Amino acid sequence: MASLIADRDIYLLSDEVYEHLVFDGARHVSVLDHDELYQRAFVASSFGKTYHVTGWKTGYVVAPPALTAELRKVHQYVSFCGVTPLQYALADFMAEHPEHIDELPGFYQAKRDYFCNQLAGSRFSFKPVGGTYFQLVDYSQIRPDLNDVDMALWMTREHGVASIPISVFYQSPPPGQRLIRLCFAKQEDTLRLAAEKLCAI
After folding, report:
1. What digits encode the pLDDT tens for the residues 116-163?
2. Per-residue three-class SS string for the chain
3. Could you tell me if residue 93 is inside a domain?
4. Torsion angles phi and psi, residue 91, rounded to 5
5. Which domain does 26 fall in, by range?
6. Rounded distance, CA 82 to CA 200, Å?
7. Aminotransferase class I/classII large domain location, by residue (predicted)?
8. Which of 42, 133, 142, 181 could bridge across to 185 with cysteines, CB 3.0–4.6 Å?
9. Which of 47, 82, 117 is the last residue of a domain?
């Protein structure tokens, strides 16, 4: 990537909100680890994803001082202010539970493994995800006639399981792609019930 941007006026926005949710002994590699990339990068991270409070919409950006100065000029017109009590709550939790970061990968890997084991008898095909708390599944053996948006609607209406179509993350989705995203950041009973419904499709 460094060679691609070396002689161009290009800056990087690196979405690293799942930096602490990496499984199977793998290590997250950030653009911050690369000197040349760091000089031209904004790295977005999320307290919400890391501390189970996604509804708080609290995160941060890391960038070199010159880039941060420019970002602040834009930020003041995009977001008036953060929610101070939530920032204090996060700071207190981080100080009181420094072990949380180290325990997080194992916590979610156990959920991933449980959910994937429960799905093993289904007609969905998948490879256990290496990070995040979303499992991609291929439904081409079930309803190849449906695009992912229609598949997500059909599964919700007919089978009571909500999913996320992948095409919403593309400007131009690959033709014929039959993938949906399932969240396993749930209680075990919820995952078991969802898997039972998915295996019945």
Report:
1. 999 999 999 999 999 999 999 999 999 999 999 999 999 999 999 999
2. CHHHHCCCCCCEEEECCCCCCECCCCCCCCHHHCHHHHCCEEEEEEHHHHCCCHHHCCEEEECCHHHHHHHHHHHHHHCCCCCHHHHHHHHHHHHHCCCHHHHHHHHHHHHHHHHHHHHCCCCCECCCCCECCEEEEECCCCCCCCCHHHHHHHHHHHHCCCCEEHHHHCCCCCCCCCEEEEECCCCHHHHHHHHHHHHCC
3. no
4. -60, -45
5. 1-82
6. 45
7. 2-198
8. 133
9. 82
Token readout for 149 is: 């948006």
Task: Give the count of beta carbons closer than 10 Å to the beta carbon of residue 113.
Answer: 14
Give the predicted TM-score (pTM) of the model.
0.89
